[in-house]
Design a protein that fits this description.
mainly alpha, 10 helices
Length: 255
């Protein structure tokens, strides 16, 4: 009939509208997914920059030196934070041991590690690390090397063993690998890039907030609709339970 045809036509139009909305939502979702995948790349870059900045600020390393230390730390399974923390404790130990150092009665003298140059200025972290590595290599595996690490770096020294035990050949190979990777090492540029990345992070957060603001009313409406449908189904089931039981009983009699 004409009514049936019009109903079918109306349903077709409604289906087309729903399909159109679904297609638009899918496109938007794809775009948002790509944006947040890009955020993971940015976060990785930020972590690299933060590691170099930490070593630069804490130990006064150049960008190139910080990159080498960070790369070596990553290869042996620790982080730049672990290295910075350990050397921070070493620096504190030097400051607290000055009277003993002047008398030659300190742990640095005990292990043959010079922490001051001829003019009594504190040596750089690079120079101290080179000496410590030489001593660890000379001691070899065992309690002696572990005791040195604990004496100089405190409890943090335990995590540093594999980093300190790297041979010159291993370090040279890692330096070549790092150079081949071409990772950025300019600390000032990385800091500036980090700030821009942080701004982008705020933009991503704004996108999520806008999405939540737009979707929440729709989700609430859908939830209410489901509750109403569930309620209607229950009412219908309760209403039909009596007649259906009677019908079943009548069928059972016939059988």
């Amino acid at each position: 009939s004409a009514d049936t045809a019009n109903a079918v036509k109306g349903l077709g139009t409604l289906k087309g509208s729903i399909d159109g909305i679904g297609s638009t939502v899918a496109k938007v979702a794809g775009l948002i997914g790509s944006a947040f995948a890009l955020r993971d790349v940015i976060n990785t870059t930020q972590q690299w920059a933060a590691s170099l900045d930490n070593l630069h600020d804490t130990l006064g390393l150049s960008g190139d030196a910080a990159a080498k230390w960070n790369y070596q730390a990553r290869i042996v399974g620790i982080t730049a934070d672990d290295v910075a923390t350990a050397f921070g404790q070493l620096t504190n130990k030097i400051g607290n041991s000055l009277p003993a150092i002047m008398k030659g009665e300190d742990d640095f003298t005990k292990w043959g590690i010079s922490v001051f140059d001829a003019s009594r200025s504190l040596l750089g972290a690079d120079a101290i690390l080179e000496q410590v590595r030489e001593k660890v290599e000379a001691l070899g595996p065992g309690l002696g090397a572990r005791q040195l690490e604990m004496d100089l770096f405190g409890r943090a020294g335990g995590r540093l063993h594999d980093f300190l035990a790297l041979s010159n050949e291993e370090i040279e190979r890692m330096n070549e690998d790092l150079k081949a990777l071409g990772l950025p090492t300019n600390v000032a540029e990385l800091e500036a890039m980090n700030r821009e990345s942080n701004r982008l992070g705020v933009i991503f957060d704004a996108i999520k907030i806008k999405l939540a603001t737009a979707l929440l009313p729709l989700l609430l409406a859908a939830g209410r609709g489901l509750v109403l449908v569930a309620g209607a189904v229950k009412v219908l089931a309760d209403a039909m339970s009596g007649p259906l039981a009677t019908l079943k009983e009548w069928i059972d009699r016939l059988i």
